[in-house]
Structure formats: C-alpha cells, structure tokens
Structure prediction request, 165 residues.
Amino acid sequence: MEISIASATLSIAIAVVSWWAWRTLNWVWFKPKMLESYLRRQGLSGSPYTPLVGDLKRNFSLLKEARSKPIKLTDDITPRVVPYPLKMLKTHGRTYFTWLGPIPTITIMDPEQIKEVFNKVYDFQKTHTFPLARLIGTGLASYDCDKWAKHRRIINPIVKAEKPD
Prediction:
C-alpha cells in the first residue's frame, strides 16, 4: 500500500495539533496543579488555582469593592490599597501563595525567611515578568546571581555605615 501525500499531511497535522494541545494543557492545568501540590506538601497554604486567571479576578474585584467605599483621612488605608494581600494574610498567615495566572507567587513576611532568601541568591531566582523595566532602569533589585553579588559587595559599606549621633 502506498501512503498518499494527503494522509501523510493529515498525520503530520494531527501530530502537530496534538503536541500543541498537550503543551497548552500542560501550561494551563497540569503544571500549576503540580506546583500547587508541591507548595501544599511543603506546608504552605494559599488559594486554589483557577485556570489562566489565577487570583487576578479576585484581586481586582476586592480592589474595586474597597475603592468604592468612602474613606476618612484618619482611617487605615491598608484595606483600601492592598485588600487582597490583607485578606490572604488574615486567612493563611504570614507565609502564603497566590496565583498570577498559572504562576504561583509566594509571599513571605517572616524576617528570618526573608533574610534566608536574600542570602541565597543562586537558589531563589528573581522573576522577570516586566521586560520594559530593564529599559526604564536597572539596579540591585533587578540583578541576578553574580551581578547581584558584585553590586551588593559594592554598596555594602554604604548600607552598613554607622549613623552619626
């Protein structure tokens, strides 16, 4: 039997569409659910994953609700400015994870854990979600690994300088 060009083309098209569908499904569902499982096994709590949007919809709805209420000059502005992180802090404690689309974001508020993250620059990579920021300005906050260590060493005497009384 001869394989016709049409059947070969159809087979290749089916393979390409299947591969694309698998990659999309992996990106949208399997990988985020696997990451959520890993985070929960490590003892972190957070909101469950919502496909594609993550917590963005909840964040925007809480922000819209908070800004619709009037505020006095003497009121605490925290619930108005960052309502979703405040709600997560009250619900899940000082270390929790949220979702920016299919990407989990861990919020740490314990000083010892923050110090550990800052000291292990090779283990905890920074996210580069906004490439335009590199054009606007770079600095210690945007550098990674060796470049971060070099610049940290340069500014360390300034940071550690004693203040005059």
The first strand starts at residue 45 and ends at 46. Residues 119 and 149 are 10 Å apart (CA to CA). The radius of gyration is 23 Å.
